[in-house]
Structure to design on (286 residues):
C-alpha cells in the first residue's frame, strides 16, 4: 500500500521508507564513528595508547597533555564505536583502533581525515553555491586541525600505489632512474612524491612548490629526517605564477590540476614553457 507525504507526490511503500531510514542511519553512524577516530588521530590518542599498552583515562590525558574531561568523553565514544577495549578500568586499542594509528603500516587514518574534510567541503559548497564564489584550494587551510594531516592522508593513500604500480610502468621514470635529472612537483603537499622518486632515482634533484606554509614546513622536516635535504627543496608558491630559471626534465602535478581547472589553458602553457623538449609533464588525478 502506498503512502504520500503530500498530495500529488509519488507513493512510497512503508517498507521502502523504513529500509531507507535504516540505511541512512547506518551511514550517519559510520560518519560519526570516523569523527571520533579523527579526534583520536589529531590529538595523538591512538599513538599514546599504543605506546602505553593499556591505561586509564587520567593516564591517557596526562600522557597526551589533554584535558581529562574531554579525554573521558572521547574514550567513552571510542569504546562505543569499537576503537577501544576495556580490561577492568584500563583501556587498550582494539584491532580497529590500532589501525587508526598514523604510524601503523596499513593505517586507516586517511579514511577518517578524508571524511571530516568532506564534511568541511560540503559545508563550504553549500555556503558558496548561492554567490558563485570560488575560493580555490585555500578552503583546505580553513580548518587548522585538517591541513597538517592533508599531506599525510595523500601519502598514505597513494605513495605505496605509486611505488608499486606506476613508477615501474612509465618510461619517463626509468629514464630518471638511469640518468637522473631535475624534477618539479607543483602542489607538492608534504613532499611524498619527490621523496618516493629520490629513493629510487639517486641522480635526481627536485623542487616542490605548495601554496600552504604548513605543507612546506612539513615537507622540509621530512626530507631532513629522511636524508634527502641535499637533493630536495621546497618553497611557498603558486602554480599559476610558477617560474623556473631553466627548463626541467619532469614537472609533476599530483591531485593538483583540479584546483586550477578553470584556468587550465594558462596552466598548460606554463608547463609547456618550463619543461625540456625531451622532458615530460606527469599529471595524476586519482
Amino acid at each position: 500500500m502506498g503512502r504520500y507525504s503530500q498530495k500529488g507526490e509519488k507513493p512510497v511503500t512503508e517498507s521502502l521508507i523504513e529500509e531507507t531510514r535504516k540505511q541512512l542511519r547506518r551511514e550517519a553512524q559510520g560518519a560519526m564513528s570516523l569523527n571520533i577516530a579523527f579526534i583520536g588521530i589529531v590529538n595523538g590518542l591512538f599513538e599514546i595508547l599504543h605506546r602505553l599498552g593499556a591505561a586509564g583515562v587520567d593516564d591517557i590525558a596526562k600522557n597526551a597533555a589533554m584535558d581529562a574531561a574531554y579525554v573521558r568523553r572521547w574514550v567513552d565514544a571510542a569504546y562505543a564505536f569499537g576503537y577501544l577495549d576495556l580490561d577492568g578500568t584500563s583501556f587498550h586499542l582494539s584491532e580497529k583502533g590500532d589501525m587508526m594509528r598514523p604510524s601503523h603500516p596499513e593505517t586507516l587514518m586517511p579514511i577518517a581525515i578524508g571524511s571530516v574534510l568532506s564534511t568541511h567541503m560540503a559545508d563550504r559548497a553549500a555556503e558558496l553555491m548561492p554567490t558563485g564564489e570560488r575560493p580555490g584550494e585555500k578552503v583546505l587551510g580553513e580548518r587548522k586541525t585538517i591541513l597538517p594531516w592533508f599531506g599525510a592522508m595523500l601519502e598514505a593513500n597513494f605513495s605505496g600505489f605509486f611505488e608499486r604500480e606506476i613508477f615501474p610502468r612509465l618510461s619517463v621514470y626509468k629514464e630518471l632512474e638511469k640518468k637522473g635529472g631535475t624534477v618539479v612537483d607543483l602542489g607538492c603537499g608534504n613532499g611524498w612524491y619527490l621523496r618516493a622518486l629520490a629513493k629510487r632515482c639517486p641522480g635526481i634533484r627536485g623542487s616542490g612548490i605548495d601554496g600552504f606554509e604548513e605543507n612546506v614546513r612539513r615537507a622540509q622536516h621530512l626530507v631532513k629526517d629522511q636524508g634527502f635535504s641535499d637533493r630536495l627543496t621546497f618553497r611557498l608558491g603558486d602554480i599559476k605564477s610558477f617560474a623556473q630559471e631553466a627548463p626541467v626534465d619532469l614537472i609533476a602535478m599530483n591531485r593538483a590540476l583540479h584546483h586550477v581547472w578553470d584556468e587550465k589553458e594558462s596552466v598548460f602553457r606554463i608547463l609547456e614553457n618550463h619543461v625540456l623538449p625531451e622532458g615530460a609533464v606527469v599529471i595524476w588525478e586519482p
